[in-house]
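For concreteness, we quote verbatim a single protein encoded this way:
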Amino acid sequence: MAIQRVVKPTTRKGKRVLEARQPITIEGPKQTLVLHGRKTSDFIRLGLKDLYRLKKPDAKLLSRNNDITIFENASPVEELCRKYETSLFIMGSHSKKRPNNLIIGRMYNYSLLDMVELGLDSFQSLADFVGPKITLGTKPCLIFNGPAWDQMDELKHLKSMFVDLFHRENVENIRLQGLEHAISFTATADNKILLRSYKVLLKKSGCKTPRVELEEMGPHLDFTFRRSKLASEDLMKQACRKPKILKVAKRKNVSRDGLGTLHGRIHVGKQNITSLQTRKMKGLKKTAEEKRAEKKQRKRPLTAETNSTKPVASKKRKVE
C-alpha cells in the first residue's frame, strides 16, 4: 500500500484550496468523470455524451482516449479522479471480447471502492426523440422496477451507484411543478437493465390535482450485466459511516415507516371505563321505564340474611 504524502500549504491560496478539499458534514452533488478507454465505438461515444448531459453540470467529460484496463490496474483512473476531484467515474471502451463496454465505479478517499461492468446492447440518443427537454440541473425522480434490485448483491451495489450518480442537492420539501424529470431503471429476469428517461407533463384534469403523463425524451439504454468488483464489508461500512452530528438520537416508543411518517406509542394505565364521560346522544338516554325501575331499586330496604346453617348452642344455667 502506497504511503500518501502530507502536503503543507505555503501560501494563503494553497491553504484555502486544501481546506476546500477537506470532508464536510453535508456534501453536495457528487462529481463524475466521464472518460474513454483505449478504443471506443461511435455507439459508446454517443452513450457517454448523453449520460454526461443528464449529469451536467456536476460532471467532467474527457474527449481523448486513455490506455487503461481498469480491472487489471485501477491506478490511472484513481489519479484522474484525484486530479479532477471526482468521486464517480464512467468509462467506455470497445473490444472484440467485450464490445460496447461501459464501466461505472466509485471512489473512496480517491481509491477504488467498487465498480460494475455493463454491456450496451441498444441505444437511442436524446436527438432521436422529438420534443422539449429538461432544464439544466433538474433533480430527477428515480424509479427502480423489479424485485432483483433487492435480491442480488451486484444489483444492490449498482442501484446504489445509480442513486449516487443522479443524486443532487438534499431538499426537505418539493413542489409538484418541480417534478419535471423521471428516470426508470428496470431489472428483468434475463439479466438485463433497462434505462428510460421521461419528461413529466402536468395537464388539466378538471380538478385540483393535475393529470400526470410521462413522455419519453431519451436516452433509451439497454444494458447487460457482465462483471463487477465489489468492496469488502469493512471498507463499505467505513465509506458509509455518518458523522455524529447527522445521527438522529433514538426516541423511545417513536418510529418512522418507509414513507417517513412518524408513529408513536403511548402507554396508559388502567382506567375505570364506567366513570368515563361519553358523548350525550339521544339514542343512549334511558327510557322512562328504566328510570322508574332504577328509582324503585334505590328505595327498596335492605334485609339482613344469615347464610350460616350451624345451630346456635344454648347456654345452660348452673344449678348449685
The first strand starts at residue 32 and ends at 36.
